[in-house]
Each structure stands twice: as C-alpha cells, then as structure tokens.
Design brief:
Distance between the termini: 31 Å
Number of domains: 2
Order of helices and strands: HHHHHHHHHHH
CATH class of the largest domain: Mainly Alpha
CATH topology of the largest domain: Fumarate Reductase Iron-sulfur Protein, Chain B, domain 2
Radius of gyration: 19 Å
Structural class: mainly alpha
Number of strands: 0
Length: 193
C-alpha cells in the first residue's frame, strides 16, 4: 500500500484488513459522539447522500459516511487519527440532505473536539487559532485585499474586527476561557520546536 503523509501505520494496517475485531470497538465513543453532536449516527443506513452532497469529496479522499460509520462502530482511534477528519468545510450540505435527519457535520465536529482533547489536530488549524486570537480573523485582512475592496466600492476594512478592533478582546477572552489559544501554542511549540 502506498504511504500517505500523516496516516499512522496502524491505520494502514486496518485499511489493509477489512475485518472488524471486537477489541477495536469502543462503545463509549459512540455514546460520547452522540452526546456531543446531539444527533443520531446510529440511525444512519449508509445511503451515501452525505458524501454525494459534500463539496470536499470530489476533490479529496474525504468521505463523511466513513466517519459516521466509524462513530457507529465505536472506532475511536481510526476516526480521530485519520487526517481526513479535518477536510470537512462545515457547510452542512450533508446535514441538509440527510434522509434520516442525522447531522453528519455535527458528528465531525464532535470528533474534532475529541481529537483536540488528545492533541490530534493539524498545525495549520492551530495557527488559525493563533491568527484569530491576534486579529479576530482566521485570514487577516491585508493590503491586496484592501485595494480590491476599494476598487469594488467597498470600505477597505470589512465590518468585522478589522473595523471594530475593540471586539478582539472579547474573542481573546473566549479563547482564553476555553484554553484554546494556550493549547494551540503548546502543541505548535511541541511539533515545530
């Protein structure tokens, strides 16, 4: 099997083995995902509507129904260590179209929260947290964007924290309260030195 950057060897082994072993299942994981996501992944019958409506699926290896299935089967390590977990754009197309009224996006968000508790999160996401803490934006405004906005007849800065910097303190307070910035700084430092 070809090696893919970021996939643990254990996952490669599982992908090569199509059998499910009882000792790999964590029923508490299923219950935890259902509690956090406040949805019902156990009702999924794997129709594929979520994956078919996903804008990330045609451009990547991301298949949301695999994650819903992993939640159902209690495959905690397989779900939380798969880098594809972070490819969801949270557009809620899958949730809007699910014939069983499941919220697959919320299942993904629950898994991401659980992964973060285990420090399993891509560095680029953590750097976005750092940018939000500093500026209030994941992608801060710059001179090129300001010029483009002016050319379109818009104010140089959008009506966000760029135009109202006093609100950055509120964003920082929220991130500090949940220790998101502190943990992001710690994990980035551990990985990048």
């Amino acid at each position: 099997m070809a090696r893919t950057k970021g996939y643990p060897e254990a996952l490669e082994k599982k992908l090569a083995d199509t059998r499910l072993f009882e000792d790999e299942r964590h029923p508490e994981f299923t219950k935890t995902v259902e509690k956090i996501s406040m949805t019902i992944p156990h009702m999924c019958y794997q129709c594929g509507t979520c994956t078919a409506s996903c804008p990330s699926a045609p451009r990547s290896s991301y298949r949301i129904r695999k994650f819903v299935r992993r939640a159902l089967l209690g495959l905690e390590d397989e779900a939380l260590t798969d880098p594809d977990l972070w490819l969801c754009t949270t557009c809620y197309s899958c949730t809007d179209r699910c014939p069983r009224d499941i919220a697959p996006t919320d299942v993904i968000m629950a898994m991401r929260n659980l992964a973060f508790k285990r420090d399993i999160v891509p560095v680029n996401f953590l750097k976005t947290v750092q940018a939000i803490y500093t500026t209030g934006h994941g992608v801060p405004n710059n001179d090129v964007n300001r010029a483009a906005r002016k050319k379109l007849g818009l104010p140089a800065d959008p009506p966000t924290t760029h135009g109202f910097p006093k609100y950055v303190k509120g964003i920082q307070h929220i991130l500090d309260y949940f220790e998101l910035k502190k943990n992001a700084d710690r994990i980035v430092k551990e990985r990048e030195g």
